[in-house]
Specification:
By secondary structure, the protein is α/β, with parallel strands linked by helices. It folds into four domains: 1-38, no CATH class; 39-120 and 322-502, Rossmann fold (3-Layer(aba) Sandwich); 124-315, Dimethylsulfoxide Reductase, domain 2 (3-Layer(aba) Sandwich), CATH 3.40.228.10; 551-674, Barwin-like endoglucanases (Beta Barrel), CATH 2.40.40.20. The protein binds ligand MGD (2 copies) and molybdenum atom. Molybdenum atom binds at residues 91, 120. Residues 1-20 are annotated as: Disordered.
């Protein structure tokens, strides 16, 4: 991103036309980044709460008062049990410097509880680790040469624009595009074929595709023999998933499955053409999300798709980046090693805050320090999250740019800089370039970077290790493992001068195998999973909440609800930028005409979606974009900007995925009624 600065003020942001990954394009929301930075509601001084928790009444205080208050409270709690302190952070910035560097050092030295950062990607990352050994895959820069592109559980027009640009190039060159998505998203409607399965059933679909490939000998036997483990066992498993059986589970036609598997195998094996799968997050947000990713991840190895630069699969490229987490986060500072502090899962923060503790190794959480996250809006079952945050005996510190739903519960609010105002280094989302975030403007008001807040706190708490004096540039320089061949020629010095540098990777990284597993092969059968007490083969693990698995619940709440990201928001970021919120309008719920009619719901009317966990109001859009049995509420709205002060996470559950302990946002049964049928909220 290039920033134009005039008289110290950022006046324009634009994509860097020279960057091959993004080709000069910014997505809608980030192109409004200056509106966000200079937003009249920016938090510009430290504040202390003067109203009730959640009410949002604050008064400015000095940095000295704020830091003294925080240091005093944390020291007192740490003297009793540092594990009663919990950091909470995720995607506000995923920069290596402003994310988990100085913050991690601070909490490690303190001996605070560890946070299991599962809220987004851990189901799929765990599945890939078992299957490929790491989050690695094809380089999407070659996608324009693919002949078939399967967009599986992703909506790249909204959430991965730079990949979509390349998909369109491939389409112009004759590629077939397929979307696998319960919802006819902006992306699905532009694909040649859309397979609208029920949420959480992808594992069955992938196994039935394998069934067809095996039945019809559409297999790359040479690749399988040289670069995979467990083919015979996988064959036995897949043969149980006939297209007929999977069609019933997924709610799709047998023809959809036969057609897709046939085309995939025919192109890859018979015609030796590149076939690509972009696997995204949609399929990961149900009970069986981990195993679904594992099943899909086996497909390219069965047909030898990796042989081509434009073939294979990509979920994430993060495993390619040689990042020195030990230097950044300094886990060696933990007191009491080799024993570790307890770990708290961020995806069940509601229950964790409401847990009274047991006095023995599992204390009640007494202090919470939130940065880079808005859990009251984004974490599942948010009625519980808000109840936890409202605890009078909880001391809450929030580092923020804005007064979010979470900030409203803070005892102390600390103003953080935006990315125009600080230094950082980034891995990439879907491409393979390291990026430097150079500082463009001076911090606004009294805002300071996260790193500086933890540096100042460390000093007040008497943490004397030299790493607490590292500058942001020092930390940036420590982030990259200089000795790793993938980082040859890449250092902070060169990166900050050039802005971005591509990792040194083979053009088709898995063409000759070389997976990051212990065997060096793609593990259809995983001995490590067996040892971990898990099913060593991919399987279909049904959602928690379906008529088949929870018939009594489904009788009361017959509709499956998903709440994927809206195009103009970034999770809950940007929701408060008026121009972007105006484009999204208001919270909507898409519902199929045949589900709307019997409920007396007309397009444009207010509806209430509810289950035993909570409810939310939304404006109905009666549309066959949502398949029958499905409702879709694009997210993540700030609760306080919604008509009833609620969002989709009032309805989601705190249950976890089969692998990776991740949330199941899209495994959620609800009922919907016309809002007029209920009392006003
Ligand atoms: N504009 C925008 N871009 C973003 C974000 C954002 O909030 N806004 N968030 C960023 C982040 S943190 C992430 S993790 C990614 C997420 O972005 P994606 O990886 O695209 O994932 P989702 O948006 O969760 O879901 C994508 C699609 O999956 C579908 N889906 C839901 N359930 C299922 C299912 O069970 N199976 C299948 N096959 N499909 C399903 C949804 O209908 C949706 O159209 O996007 C990133 N990019
Ligand atoms: N229902 C439903 N819930 C979801 C999802 C979904 O699809 N549906 N998606 C899930 C996913 S994939 C993810 S990744 C999570 C994301 O959830 P979060 O990690 O909470 O991400 P955001 O909602 O973007 O909130 C980040 C906050 O960090 C702040 N911030 C940004 N930069 C900085 C900084 O430099 N310093 C500080 N101190 N603060 C900063 C922003 O102002 C913003 O309020 O939400 C999850 N929740
Ligand atoms: Mo995410």
């Amino acid at each position: 991103m290039l920033v134009t600065v005039e008289d110290g003020r950022a006046t324009k942001v634009a994509g860097d036309p020279d960057h091959p990954g993004t080709q000069g394009v910014l997505c809608t929301k980030v192109s409004r980044y200056t509106d966000r930075t200079y937003h009249p509601d920016r938090l510009l001084t430290p504040m202390k709460r003067v109203g009730r928790k959640g009410e949002g009444k604050f008064e400015p205080i000095s940095w000295d008062e704020a830091l003294d208050t925080v240091a005093t409270r944390l020291s007192a709690i740490a003297a009793r049990d540092p594990q009663a302190i919990l950091p909470y952070s995720y995607a506000g910035t995923m920069g290596l410097v402003q994310g988990e560097s100085m913050a991690a050092r601070f909490f490690h030295k303190l001996g605070a509880s560890l946070l299991d950062r599962t809220i987004c990607a851990s189901a799929g990352a765990t599945a890939l680790r078992y299957t490929y050994g790491a989050s690695i895959g094809m380089d999407i820069e070659h996608v324009p040469d693919a002949k078939l592109i399967i967009i599986w559980g992703g909506n790249p027009i909204a959430s991965n624009l730079h990949f979509w640009t390349r998909v369109q190039q491939a389409k112009r060159r004759g590629a077939t595009l397929v979307a696998i998505d319960p919802y006819r998203s902006l992306t699905a409607e532009k694909c040649h074929r859309h397979i609208a399965l029920m949420p959480g059933t992808d594992g069955a679909l992938a196994l039935a595709m394998m069934h067809v490939l095996m039945r019809d000998d559409l297999l790359d036997f040479e690749y399988i023999a040289s670069h995979t483990v467990g083919f015979e066992a996988l064959r036995e498993r897949a043969l149980a998933y006939t297209p007929q059986r999977a069609a019933e589970i997924c709610g799709v036609s047998v023809d959809d499955i036969e057609w897709l598997a046939g085309l995939y195998g025919q192109l890859a094996v018979r015609e030796r053409q590149p076939v690509a799968i972009r696997l995204n997050y949609g399929m990961q947000r149900s009970h069986g999300g981990g195993q679904a990713v594992r099943a899909v991840a086996c497909l390219p190895s069965l047909v030898g798709a990796w042989r081509h630069a434009a073939g294979g699969l990509q979920l994430s490229t993060s495993g390619f980046f040689p990042v020195d987490n030990l230097a950044l986060q300094r886990p060696d500072l933990l007191p009491g090693l080799p024993a570790l502090p307890r770990t708290v899962n961020m995806s069940t923060i509601g229950d964790a805050l409401l847990d009274a503790g047991d006095g023995a190794g599992n204390p009640k959480i007494e202090a919470l320090v939130v940065y880079n996250s808005n859990p009251v809006a984004v974490a599942p079952q948010s009625t519980k999250v808000a109840e936890g945050f409202a605890r009078e005996d909880l001391f809450t510190v929030v580092l923020e740019q804005f007064r979010t739903d979470t900030a409203d519960y803070a005892d102390i609010l600390l103003p953080a800089t935006t990315q125009l105002e600080h230094v950082d280094v980034h891995k990439a989302y879907g491409h393979t370039y390291f990026l430097a975030n150079n500082q463009a403007i001076a911090p606004l008001g009294e805002a300071v970077p996260n790193t500086e807040i933890f540096r100042r706190l460390a000093q007040r708490m008497g943490f004397a290790e030299p790493c607490f004096a590292d500058s942001d540039e020092d930390i940036a320089a420590q982030a990259i493992v200089a000795t790793d061949p993938r980082a040859a020629g890449i250092s902070w010095e060169s990166l900050k001068a050039q802005g971005w540098q591509k990792l040194n990777l083979p053009v088709a990284p898995l063409a000759e195998g070389g997976f990051a597993t212990a065997s060096g092969k793609c593990e259809f059968y995983s001995e490590i999973m067996r040892r971990d007490g898990l099913d060593p083969l991919p399987d279909y693990v049904p959602p928690y909440e379906t008529p088949a698995t929870a018939p009594e619940l489904a009788a009361r709440y017959p509709l499956a609800m998903i709440s994927p990201p809206a195009r103009n928001f970034l999770n809950s970021s940007f929701v408060n930028v008026d121009s972007l919120r105006a484009t999204e309008g208001e919270p909507h719920l898409d519902i199929h005409p045949e589900d709307a009619a019997p409920r007396g719901i007309a397009s444009g009317s207010m509806v209430r979606a509810f289950n035993d966990r909570g409810s939310m109001l939304a404006r109905a859009r009666v549309t066959d974009r949502a398949r029958r049995g499905l409702v879709v509420g694009l997210s993540i709205w700030w609760k306080k900007l919604a008509p009833d002060g609620k969002n989709a996470n009032e309805l989601t559950s705190q249950r976890l995925t089969d692998l990776g302990r991740a949330p199941v946002f899209y495994d959620c049964l609800v009922q919907v009624e016309a809002a007029s049928a209920t009392a006003t909220p």
